[in-house]
Structures are given as structure tokens and as C-alpha cells.
Amino acid sequence: MKAILCTRFGLPDQLIYTETKNPVPKEDEVLIAVKACSVNFPDILIIQNKYQFKPELPFSPGGEVSGLVEAVGTKVKNLKKGQRVLALCGWGGFAEKVVVKADRIFPIPPDLDYLTAASTLYTFGTAYHALKDRAILQAGETLLVLGASGGVGLAAVELGKAMGAKVIAAASSAEKLAICQAKGADERINYEQENLKERIKEITEGKGVDVVLDVVGGKYAEPALRGMAWKGRYLVVGFAAGDIPQLPFNLVLLKGCAVMGVFWGRFSQEEPKKNQQNIMELLSMIQSGKISQHIHKVYDLESAPNALQELLDRKVMGKAIVKVGDWEEEKKAIQKSLSQNTKPIGSNASIPISFKTLGDLKKHVGQELGISSWTTVSQEVIQKFAETTDDFQWIHVDTEKAKALLPGGKNIAHGYLTLSLVPKLLVDLLPLEGIEMALNYGVNKVRFPAPVYSGDQVRLKARLINVEETNDGGFKLFIYAEMESRGSEKPVCVAELITLIR
Ligand SMILES: NC(=O)c1ccc[n+]([C@@H]2O[C@H](COP(=O)([O-])OP(=O)(O)OC[C@H]3O[C@@H](n4cnc5c(N)ncnc54)[C@H](OP(=O)(O)O)[C@@H]3O)[C@@H](O)[C@H]2O)c1
């Protein structure tokens, strides 16, 4: 296979692109055909032998990949060949194949592309763990992010906003700050040109910030600490500037504040269940569009050292990604599955998409209405449904128990949740024009032949069974609705709907 190899410790220009032997998975490992590998700051440290993990030479850098499972070790039961996955490999990712321990691998939701998948966990995982588990950031609090346009920084800006905080982004140029603003930052500080401590004071009207997330260290740490509010939390995440700051302890006393370490890699090993829960929440936020990765540039495998050099030169905003393997095949497969997924049912591709008169509708009785687009039943949607209906059965809401006890380790959506999606999906299929009122009047013969798991995608097929006139000049539509889940042989919800329209 082709790989980028570190044969002696040094800067990115020492790395070589070469042919090397395919790795072989041990009994608890999985061989992944890499599709994408994101570029992270530790890749720069690891090739210089400055990182806490020290692989033996020669090795490939690249700690976070997405790809296809190619082979599994004899003890691996939860993953299979052909599955799309993302993995935290630590190193080895700038190569066509990598072996990873099974417990560091996560299946990719169907609608998540390889580039996004490979660039999500490390940055969002770290920022989320820092803000949620360490600082316990509250809505309404003020969050200052140093190095805000970098991988972890930009993720913290977005997550801070999603968690309801007021976010102040600090970075070294107007261009970098513009990206932070686009991601929702409320205030911006150019810490190369402005006085960090004074600007914090000005923006917070003297109160200071409640939480600082620091990935930079160096000369910015002390003014940031001086700009903290009473009982603030200072998150020590990284030292991209190189210098490990020495802070005066008296400031911590005077502010009654906490300086807390954030080590996501260790957290994921010490508290794997909590980490899993965070990952599920992040994937659900990505799927619902609440957060999204900013991709700076995509490099091919051979130019991976350039990507590392640009990161080192502070040129990367958001994430740099290395594309690996055969993307032409991948594109064909995606196109094939898209064309299959958007094909209307039956031979009714020419069905009029709107019905202007009762006559139009009557002519359509017995015919299919078509097929809706896919929609994802995320854990967030399941949680919201549980809250709305006050039904908190563990199979719906307890992600840790579901992981341990349910097949596939995922929560199951309430049957009535799928039924509740029917009217929304039906609008795609039955855009009635000139209608004063449409009312979902009732449902008949509801069945749920197969479960819907958290993260599954569903869509609706429908057929008009009958149209009846009512005494007040309106009419009742009887619609056969069948909801399918991507990859399930049986439908997940079948029902006969009665819709009253006037
Ligand atoms: N503790 C953990 O669990 C954990 C997890 C992930 C990452 N980290 C650490 O967090 C740090 C940031 O990681 P990242 O992936 O976000 O990196 P990144 O994308 O390169 O971002 C780092 C930011 O730091 C700023 N910076 C200031 N001085 C720099 C210098 N001399 N060289 C490079 N950047 C400099 C840059 O912004 P400006 O130009 O705007 O200043 C840059 O955007 C790294 O030290 C990494 O090891 C720690």
C-alpha cells in the first residue's frame, strides 16, 4: 500500500511518500481501507517525538480516519466487512490502510460523508468534553475561545453557541475572525493587535468571562486569566504556541476560579460510556445541522506533509483533510445509491404533483402518490418525542443501557414517533393547492412491523385509496401510507390515514 512514513523524527519535510506492507489486524483489531484522514495538531508533535504517545519508527502519522472495514479480527463481533466507519487510530492514518482496535471505531450514519466523518471527533469531541464535562458551561454564560479559528477552537465557538453561551472569539487575523463570526461568535478580539485583557473587560463591561477555552497557551494565557469573572473556569486544552505558560496562583485565589485540564484522549479511555454518549450527541447535532465542520482544504495523500506544514504555519482555518484511496469508485457508489433512493415507486413518475379539483383527486384513486425524501430519526428527535409525550421508556432514552442491551447498541424510536412523521412527509407527496383547511382526521390499522433505531433514515410511500365527499362541501381522503427504513426489509410503519380537506 501507499503511505506517508516518518522514518526519523523531524518536521513535515522529513516525511516520505512510499510503498509499504499492508498492516494485518490482530484478534481485537479491524483493518480499515482509509478514505479520509484529518490533519490534527498532535500529528505535528508526534513526528517530532514531542507527543505523549511515542510510536516506534517507521510509522505513518494521522490519528483520525474514515473509511471502509476491510477485515475484522476473530474477536470483533460488532463490526463487519464493508461497513462505513470512523476511527481514532492515534497514528497510521496517512496510509491506504490502517489497523485500529475495535473499541476505537464507530459506524458512520448513512448521510454523513467521509470528509466530515474524518474531521469531526477529535475537534468537536475535545471541545464538547471541555465545555460540557469540565466547565459545565451554562446558557447565558460568557465563553472566550483562544485560537478560535483552529480545529478545536472553531468547534468550541459553534458548540458554545449551541449551548447558549455568549461567545468571544480570539484569533490572530481579521480573516480568521471572520470565519469565527460566520460560525456564530458574538464578539471578536484580534489578540495580535489588541490588548486581550482590556478588550475582555470592555466586552464584558468589567465582569470578565465565565469560561476560557485555551488551545494556544504562550503569551495569551495570563491576560486571559486576568480577564476572568468570579468563579470562572479556565480550560487548559493545548499549547499550540509552543510555550507552556507559568501562571501566578494568586490570580486563581482572587477570582475564586478553577484552572482545569482537558485531556480528551484519556477521557475517552477512562470514561468510554460518557464519551460514547458525547459522540452520539455530536453526531445528532451534525445530522440536524446544528453544528458543521469548516473544511479548509482537501489534500491528496502524497501532499499530506504540505497539510502538516500549513497547520504549523498557522495557515489552516477549521480543518485540513487528506483524501485517500479510490474516490471515483466511491462517487459512483454514492450516485448509484442516490438514484435508487430518489426513484418514485410504481410507474407513476408523471403523476400530477398537485390536485386542483375534486375530479383530479377522484381520477387518482387507487394510484400511488409517490415517495418522500429521506428523513433521519436522530437521538435528539427521539428525546424530544419522549419529552413531548412524557414516555421515557429506557429503550428510547437511555443510550448507555441501549448500547449494552439492544441489538446494534442503539435506542429505538417510539412507534408513534414514526407515525407522527407521516403528515410531515405526506406534504412532500400531496401538495394540495387552493385548500382552505386540511385536517388529519384519523388513522386506521396502524402497524409497526420493524423497529426504527436511533440514526436510521425513513421515507414514506403513499397511495390514494378513496375520496369521499362530506356534507359540508369538503371531502375525506383515505390514504395508504407505508414508511420504510433504509436497509430494513420490512416496513417500519403501515397505516391508513383519513385526511379531511375543504
Ligand atoms: N487536550 C486535549 O485533549 C487536546 C485535544 C485536541 C487538541 N489539543 C491541543 O490543542 C491545540 C490546538 O489543536 P488544533 O487541532 O485546534 O490546532 P490548530 O487547528 O492548528 O489550531 C491552533 C490555533 O492556535 C493558534 N496558534 C497560536 N500560535 C501558534 C503557533 N505557534 N503554531 C500554531 N498555531 C498557533 C492558531 O491561531 P492564531 O493564528 O489565530 O493564533 C491556530 O488556529 C494543540 O496544541 C493540540 O495538541 C489538545
What is the strand content? 25-35%
The CATH homologous superfamily of the largest domain is termed Hotdog Thioesterase
What ligands does this structure carry? NADP nicotinamide-adenine-dinucleotide phosphate
Count up the helices: 17
Q: Rg from C-alpha positions?
A: 26 Å
The quaternary organization reads as single chain
Low confidence ranges? 334-353
CATH topology-level fold name of the largest domain:
Thiol Ester Dehydrase, Chain A
Portion in helices: 25-40%
Query: Quick one: overall form?
Result: globular
CATH C-level class of the largest domain: Alpha Beta
Overall description:
Residues 10-322 form the Enoyl reductase (ER) domain. This is Enoyl reductase (ER) domain-containing protein. There is one protein chain. With 502 residues, the chain is an alpha/beta fold. The chain has 3 domains: 2-120 and 296-328, Alpha-Beta Complex (Quinone Oxidoreductase, Chain A, domain 1), CATH 3.90.180; 123-266, NAD(P)-binding Rossmann-like Domain (Rossmann fold, 3-Layer(aba) Sandwich); 343-501, Thiol Ester Dehydrase, Chain A. Helices cover 31% and strands 27% of the residues. The chain has helices at 41-47, 114-118, 121-134, 151-162, 174-182, 196-203, 221-226, 249-255, 264-270, 272-287, 304-312, 327-341, 358-363, 379-389, 394-397, 399-405, 415-429; strands at residues 2-5, 16-19, 29-39, 64-72, 84-88, 97-101, 105-107, 142-146, 166-171, 187-190, 209-214, 228-236, 258-261, 295-300, 319-323, 368-371, 375-377, 438-447, 456-469, 475-485, 493-501. The strands form 4 sheets. Strands 3, 4, 5, 6, 7, 14 and 15 form a 7-stranded mixed sheet that branches. A 6-stranded parallel sheet has the order 10-9-8-11-12-13, sandwiched between helices. Helix 9 packs across helix 10 (272-287). The longest helix is centred in the middle third of the chain and has 16 residues, at 272-287. The radius of gyration is 26 Å and the shape is globular. It binds NADP nicotinamide-adenine-dinucleotide phosphate. NADP nicotinamide-adenine-dinucleotide phosphate binds next to helix 1, helix 3, helix 4 and helix 9.
